[in-house]
Amino acid sequence: MTPDIYIGVMSGTSLDGIDVAAIRINDQFSFLAADCVKLPDDLRQQILMLTQPGNNEIELMGRLDNVLGKLFADAVKQLISSSNIDIKKIAAVGCHGQTIRHRPEAGFTLQIGDPNTIAEQTGLTTIADFRRRDLANGGQGAPLVPAFHNKLFRSAETNRVILNIGGMANITVLPANPSSLVTGFDTGPGNILSDAWIHEHSGASFDEDGNWARAGAVNQELLQHLLNLPFFSEAAPKSTGREQFHIDWIKQVIQENKLQIIAVDVQATLLELTACTIADAFNAQHLADPELYICGGGVHNSALLQRLQELTNTVHIATTEELGLHPDWVEASAFAWLAHQTLNKLTGNLPSVTGAAHERILGGIYQA
Ligand SMILES: Nc1ncnc2c1ncn2[C@@H]1O[C@H](COP(=O)(O)OP(=O)(O)OP(=O)(O)O)[C@@H](O)[C@H]1O
Ligand SMILES: CC(=O)N[C@H]1[C@@H]2OC[C@@H](O2)[C@@H](O)[C@@H]1O[C@H](C)C(=O)O
């Protein structure tokens, strides 16, 4: 029997952990199993160093490329053993890697986590480096997951928008009309700023259920200054990352404008920034009776979901669980699907999303 299981590995911008998902792709798509492996704190700190220019970057990048390759391989092996998947039925692993720099305007994006190591240590064909072919073809190299959303979540009856709220936030617009193009782009920060702000003030890695933000009041002056960032009014295609959205930006805006704000109010304002920028992007689509489906870690923040419900003009709002895929596993499943595309010589990018000139087969194949 031809192997038809694909394993996707995703370590996202929030640096909370490595998501691994196993899916079967034949005539149909079926979700089999998933797991999340935490990133050790010291490794997290070192990756953070690589996301900003600094000293001795090449040495650190080389070492982390190797360490992450081993960790990704371990995460794959752990999922295989905990879910009792027959390794002979696995066609390939699709590994996103860890983004350490994303500068499409300068012609590059960089994900690390050595796929040679993953192939060696798992004995499985591994596909990686998905973004750079799209970039070389004139695209942003991101977001890539809209092609998977299109495959799995599109409806001929209703206009749908899929929203991922991870470290960054991105939307995919899936028109009901089959001849309309799918669009999508990064809307800006998801949880990255509020994660960093609460970490600095209490050591927590994220604001559980948005409780701290809920206890504060939005500072409209700070919010307006933040919303003035040109990225928010730029037209798609667009993508972003930690280069643009980091905690020093918030501190700088507070300082430059001599704002006196207590920490809890900053947290409330950061949640509002995420909600407003997502809602503005959504409402600007002017879709007839749109449904909004949410995935990514942001679904666990009910304060954020409540604000989105208030701000978006949608007829129905739910998580992707309602569409059959748990919101925690959408991105990892997408990279399993992208591996399937590449292995079968099928294209993976959507030029209408990334701005690439053409559809392309993405990534490099590291044979078992
Ligand atoms: N219980 C919770 N309460 C509030 N927020 C939560 C909770 N659980 C997860 N999160 C948020 O979700 C984030 C992780 O989301 P996710 O794993 O989707 O991000 P990612 O994949 O790393 O990012 P990206 O999609 O940008 O690559 C955490 O950093 C945190 O902010
Ligand atoms: C460069 C990079 O890693 N971008 C991520 C990030 O996290 C969310 C958003 O910004 C999205 O553009 C992308 O990830 C998903 C997996 C994507 O390519 O669709």
Automatic annotation (TrEMBL):
One of its GO terms (molecular function) is kinase activity. Gene3D superfamilies: 3.30.420.40. Its EC number is 2.7.1.170. It catalyses: 1,6-anhydro-N-acetyl-beta-muramate + ATP + H2O = N-acetyl-D-muramate 6-phosphate + ADP + H(+). The keyword Membrane does not apply. It holds the Pfam family AnmK. ATP binds at G12, T13, S14, L15, D16, G17, I18, D19. Pathway: Cell wall biogenesis; peptidoglycan recycling; Amino-sugar metabolism; 1,6-anhydro-N-acetylmuramate degradation. CDD domains: ASKHA_NBD_ANMK. GO terms for biological process: 1,6-anhydro-N-acetyl-beta-muramic acid catabolic process; amino sugar metabolic process; peptidoglycan turnover. InterPro entries: Anhydro_N_Ac-Mur_kinase, ATPase_NBD. The keyword Cell membrane does not apply. Coiled coil: none annotated. It comes from the Bacteria. Keywords: ATP-binding, Carbohydrate metabolism, Kinase, Nucleotide-binding, Transferase. NCBIfam families: PRK09585.1-3, PRK09585.3-2. Belongs to the anhydro-N-acetylmuramic acid kinase family. Catalyzes the specific phosphorylation of 1,6-anhydro-N-acetylmuramic acid (anhMurNAc) with the simultaneous cleavage of the 1,6-anhydro ring, generating MurNAc-6-P. Is required for the utilization of anhMurNAc either imported from the medium or derived from its own cell wall murein, and thus plays a role in cell wall recycling. This is Anhydro-N-acetylmuramic acid kinase. It comes from Neptunomonas qingdaonensis.
